[in-house]
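[Solved] Which block belongs to which protein?

Original post:
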Amino acid sequence: MTLLKTMDLTAAGMSAQRTRMNVAAMNLANKSTTRGPDGQPYRRREVVLEATPQDFGTAFASAMGPEAAMGVRVQDVVESNDAPMLVYDPGHPDADAAGYVAMPNVNPIAEMVNLMGAARAYEAGTSVLQTVRQMAEQALRIGR
């Protein structure tokens, strides 16, 4: 695998992890939003990742050798189907006749775990890029 291909794969992974961080931050920011444009409480969003299909050149090269390079991309950001949590708060402006408010189905602890996992994966990508850069510098020094 070439150094440039390694950098491309790493950049794709970092982009996907950045999207995961953005979605987790959006979920945390809206954990108390009881009314959206549709009048319903905010629904938690999740990132769906998929392996990128190989182009013919990459598929041919991987068939000829032991390496199989697959990237990743964000396929979609979907809303959760979980029901909103009902919290008893009769003084809230969005409370129903029984005094219950439909709150978003966002668990702050789970979102922080998602955020930390995405941040660690992003950091791993930066480490890979740094190593590839050092390898390229070493290769250039050999040619001197």
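(Second protein starts here: sequence line, then its structure tokens.)
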Amino acid sequence: MSELSPPTATETHLSWVFFTPDRAYKLLKPVAMPFIDHTDVGNRLESISREYELNHEISPDVYLGTADVVENGEVVDRMLVMQRLPDDRRLSGLVGRPGFDRHLRSVAKAVASLHARREPVTDAPMAGHAALLGNWRENFEGLRPYVGTVIDEHDFHRVERLAERYLTGRESLLQDRIDDGFVRDAHGDLTADDIFCLDDGARIIDCLAFNDRWRIVDVLSDIGFLIMDIHRLAGWKAAEQLMRWYQEFSNEHHPSSLAHHYVAYRAHVRAKVACFRFTQGDERSALLARRYHDLTLNHLERARLRVIVVGGGPGVGKSTLAQNLGAHYGYPVLASDEVRKDVTMTAHDEHHFADPDAGIYDPASKAATYDELRREAELLLRGGTGVVLDATWSRDRDRRLIRELARETGAELVEVECVLDRAIAKERIARRLANPDYPSDATPDLVDHMAASREHWPEAIAIDTGAPVDKIRSSALAAIEDDS
């Protein structure tokens, strides 16, 4: 008869888990934290029973039952009884090994399947704007005692500013996610340590059971937890691939800024948990907390929303720069030449040359064009997408509209003015008039008129557009990033 391996144990901030060769027994710690109180026996008994119920539905061949701890005929505690899974098949341990991508794709399919089995929760205030903002603020209070020791003070306050700024003006986005059925009773605690890649498919364990409001979430927030963990363990390219596979299997769609915001939130939660473990005597958790906090900041920086206003007189190259900036940031470009023809019900390929301030360029049409630019930009920003606005922006009245919009939607405003020698601008306009597909109606004669009537723009970053296109793009990006 072969000798059995001795039992082992592991510990988290909330529990102990004891391992025998074929079983795992989970016992909750009698601890109290800001989000839970397990010091009461009754609470622990109820929590273990609830944990079994929820996890058995996800992985019935892993969650076998519960076992009461009895002293003198009285139940004093309760353990969760699980089939022991092979440690060498943990997703976290497969990083960098042959076949990791295949396993990751299988996990994406398993998570998408879990979400698909759950009905949408439309009455879900816990998934709305107020709840998400409240969760962030709860995290900040939980981390505040560790600022200056475990967590860098400057980074802590930057995370606080970026998180709250992103949520400014995003009420309709989060409500739309609820209305569109993306909020489900999900898992709530997806980590690579709790997913096992077996020959017949992935097993997902350790569903969050003690707090419904943290489990009934946007599915993007749920998969965002695992994306965060894969980023930490395997790098951002692997995390991006996981997201692409998840979307392939689930048909979920979202603005990228929201994904980064949720990933950041999940990393922030783990930073808080690591700090709690540090308080319990695990010295290594301080380094882990800082790593999670760095991930939080990384993804909040990626989630930043900008409204980039690119202006200048006719022929200065503002449309080319606007398209380049839109491609760099992944933002749509709204161009006044096209919007103007939409509001005047004119075909984009139909030219209407007119004297200054006449025809479709009269004051009423100008005002309608800039009002429509603002309206379309607001829809994008409130939906979580940044935008580039391409127009002359010759009047401060129109610039003020966008400054007000940026304040209302929490977007970072960047104002760029393209400047160029007038003679060169006239030559460019003359050349492009030969292209029938170009939407602009500007003529060389308009250059001098626009320069004379243009209002001063001290708030803008001035970019000389007489250089090669690549250099102009680089100069503008450097100025934008430095200005932010």
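Accepted answer:
You had them paired correctly. Confirming on the second one: The radius of gyration is 28 Å.
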